[in-house]
Structure formats: C-alpha cells, structure tokens
C-alpha cells in the first residue's frame, strides 16, 4: 500500500516524486471521499491511497511489492479466470483475459497501479492502455474580481468558485466578474492537488487553444474590440505589459440569464436618425462627417462604410471637456422627457416627451430609440462624465434570452452591459478599449482596427446535437477552428453518455445535481478508472482525449434537470464555415434580431 501510494501520487502529479511525500496530506471531506471510493467491489489506486492515509500506524505494513511481482500476480489471476482458449500459455495470455481481470475487485486497482509503473502483461502495455483510455481531473478555476462584476453571492461566479474550492468564502461586498477554465498564463486552472492544468495537457507547451469562462456582469464592461492575429502580434511586441499574448480573440457568448449587450455598429440610417433627434450627440461630431452620413448612397457600401468611419473617428476625437458637457445636457434632457407621473390608479408611467425645438414629435419615436435613451441614462449613472455613455446611439443594443448565443469576430466593437453568460474564445486576453472604463484606453488603435461593418451579430439558439427520452444536447459552433460549446440537459431519473472524442475538453455543471461514472467506449473495453464524481453547479472537470465514455446521471429525486456545458476544439469547423458562406447576408442583416 505504501508503494502504491507513492506510485499513484507520483503519476497523478506527472513527476518522479509525489508532491505529498514530505508533507502531511490534507484531510478529505465527505464529498471527496465519495468521489474517491467507487461502488463496493470496485477499487482504484486512489482508494488504496486513501486507505493508506487513514491507516492505523500500529498495523503491520505488508512487504513492498514491485511492479514485476504485481504484474505477475495479476497475470496469474487472469490465467486462472480466463477461458481455456485464452490460457493455453500464460506467457501469451490474450489482452481480453487481462482486461476481464480489471473488473475483479482489488485486481483492477493493482492493474492500474501496474500500468502506472509501466508493466507489461501478455504483451499489453498497461501504461499505454491507461493513457489511451483517458482521464478526468477535477479543476479549480481562476477567479477575476473586476469592478464590473456582480457582488457577493448574487454572482454566479462567486457561487461556482466556492463550490469548486477556488475560494473558501464569499465576500458580500466584493465583485466577482469572471471564472476562467483553461491554461492562459493570466489565470490558469489548477488540479485538486494544486498542479497547473498545463502539466497534464498534451501538445505544445501544454496549452489549450481556447479559454472557457463564466461571466457575471453587474454593470457595463468597456467599449472594446479584440485584435486579429497580425495586430495581436504587433501589439504584444510593442506593449507586452498591456497586451499579454500574441493571439487573436474571437469569442462566443451563451446566455445563462437574460443578457444585455452592445454589439456592432448600427446601420447608417439609424445613426442619421440619432443625429437629427439628439443635437447633443451631433455636437460631438464635425459637420463634414455628418454630411457624409446624410449624403451616402444607400446602395453604395463603400460610401456607407466611409461615412460610418468618419462619424466614429470624429466622435472619438471630440475633446473630453466638450463631450462631457454635451453628455450632461443629453442626460438632463432625457431624464426630463422620461420622468414618471402618477395615473389615477396610482401606477407610474413614462410621459411621452414634448416636441423638441426641431419640431420632431415624440409620437414618432420608435421602440429602439426609447431603449437607446434608457440605456444612455443607465450608462451615464455607472460612468459619470464618460462620453462612452452615448454608445447606444451608434452601437446595436441587444437583449438575448437564456440559451441564445452570439459570436463576436476580431476587430468588431462591443460592450457587455448586464447579465450572466458562458463565454468561450481563442486562448487570449487581448482587449483594446476606448470607453466606459477606468483602465488603459487605446483609442487610436481601436479606431484603426475596426472593420466598420454595419448590423449586429446573428442570434443563435444552438444546433440540436442529440435528442433522446430524458436528455438532449445543443451545440454552439462558431466559424473559427479553436472552439465550440455543447450544453447537455439530463432530466431527473435519466442519464446520458458522453462519447469520447480525440480532443481534450472541459466540463462545468451550470445547473442541477447529479453524478458521473465511466463506461466502455465504442471499443467495448472496460474502463481502468471509475471516474465517479458529484455534479453541483460550479464543479468543473478536465477530460483528456481518450477511448472511454463518461456518463452524466441525474437522480430520480432531483428537483430539476442537470445541465452541463462542455468546451472543446471545433470538430465542426468546416460545417460552420459552409453555413456562413450559404448566408451571404449574415454579417449585415443579423442585427435585426432582438436588436435595439
């Protein structure tokens, strides 16, 4: 048992010496013990290690068993239990006979330990077999407490971080903004024993090509865009303190709650309406740029793009003192127009604004204009004096429902406003900001990098990947190769088997209660590890590529469904690109859905 403890601990850490060899192991909680010990009759090296840790020191310790003798005992048992056809010669016993032995109680645990020691039995390389089957590790994500996060236990990020063990308690006054699951150097995830995830990820530098996040936005994020690869390399080379890596950052958001965001430029016709209606906004833009807006041909895309570029550049170049003064005037007028009065019933309502000096009547004000006006008041309260509060006048304002998603390509402006989402992106933390933030603003680079495409992103609900009695999976596939996300829902009393794939993935439970267990994959071979874990909101796992399946189980007495999100490399990249090519209007017509 002592040698098994040393061997398995060393193999889990990926090192020659186990991390706890010279330090006392921390006591396990009941939950950890339930995860460590599989069902009766099925032991693993982890169960032997746990037994050794809680062993009475007065008990006699059995003599150490080297990997050769361990392998011999397993071979002998396999020979005794295998059919005659498989045991004609113990030296040439078939792999099937050895694998059948795995299910025989302690021998399965010994076999895994032998595999970790690199033993061979009957020509079967057990270490290679264990590696090919794959493994599941519990993760501790990184937490980011940016000022815009939701505070205290109201934040999904804080609750997930507490459940995963990243934090020990929740500070009611602190913001909890982002939960990071991945290998990015600015916030790498850890295994249960504190090992960085990159040490068990195969590939160059142990890096995943994507980063999976949970976001809890209590107030607006900055007006920003993410660079493409060429610009990212340039920014990282010239300003590595601000731009931490040389990668691009396309990203996809999947709403967990109703979610508000500003994404992409409005159409030029809408900007023209706002210039007429809001003279304070017009005062921040020079006359020549305004003329381009009103004279651009509606069928000439180049003219429209040039006019949009001129308007945005002029607005961002407006002196701070002037834009701050005009914002104050705009906020005062909008508050006056939207002041509430009491009806006879006592209910409040919004007064329609009086005709303005130009003669434009409020009766002609459209719903998207009213939403934009209310958004301005909200942003101005969060960021007093920041001209970025006028952003709803030139950016699309979106409201998406839980389960809906959108994709933001590189070099497109956006600002998330409020709500909670899953977010997956290429592995990067590069952000070029221009407003609604106390952080570094890089206005010149932002103005130069944007594509000035008009219209918001398409709003998607995911592709139905599978549907069965008691379970279904939605797949969210963006037009980039780095990532895709699958969200599986399992109803109470049901289970669903996640088939193995040839790429690593990360799972996070976002809703409900359940458990996991391993199961044979398509090859029918019994798993060497039980992979029994509890599933609660916030529990996250790294799944290596392999050949075994992982079963998600929702108990019969559960009060609601189990929902698990899984991020991985995009295995449908060609399909996504084909779908995008079929819809030539995707980049320019998608903003009509739920856009304001």
The amount of helix comes to 25-40%
The residue-averaged pLDDT reads: 80
Q: What's the overall geometry?
A: elongated
The radius of gyration computed from the alpha-carbon positions, rounded to a whole number of angstroms, is: 29 Å
Strand arrangement across the biggest beta sheet: 8-3-26-23-28-21-20-19
Compute the separation of the termini in Å.
65 Å
The number of E-state strands comes to 28
Structural class: alpha+beta
Give the number of helices. Answer: 18
Largest sheet: number of strands, sense, barrel closure: 8 strands, antiparallel
Strand content: 15-25%
Poorly predicted spans: 1-118, 341-363, 578-595
Layout: helices, strands, pairs:
Elements: H1 2-13, H2 30-36, H3 45-53, H4 67-81, H5 95-101, H6 106-116, E1 120-121, E2 124-125, H7 126-133, E3 136-140, E4 142-144, E5 150-151, H8 156-164, E6 175-176, E7 178-181, E8 190-191, E9 210-217, E10 223-225, H9 229-238, E11 251-255, E12 259-265, H10 268-277, H11 279-282, H12 287-295, H13 301-317, H14 320-337, E13 340-342, E14 348-350, H15 367-382, E15 395-400, E16 405-408, E17 414-426, E18 432-435, H16 443-449, E19 463-468, E20 471-476, E21 484-490, E22 495-498, E23 505-511, E24 514-519, E25 533-535, E26 540-543, E27 549-553, E28 562-568, H17 573-582, H18 586-589
Antiparallel strand pairs: 1-2, 3-8, 3-26, 4-7, 5-6, 7-9, 9-17, 10-18, 11-16, 11-17, 12-15, 12-17, 13-14, 19-20, 20-21, 21-28, 22-27, 23-26, 23-28, 24-25, 24-27
Helix pairs in contact: 1-3, 3-6, 4-5, 4-6, 6-7, 12-13, 14-15
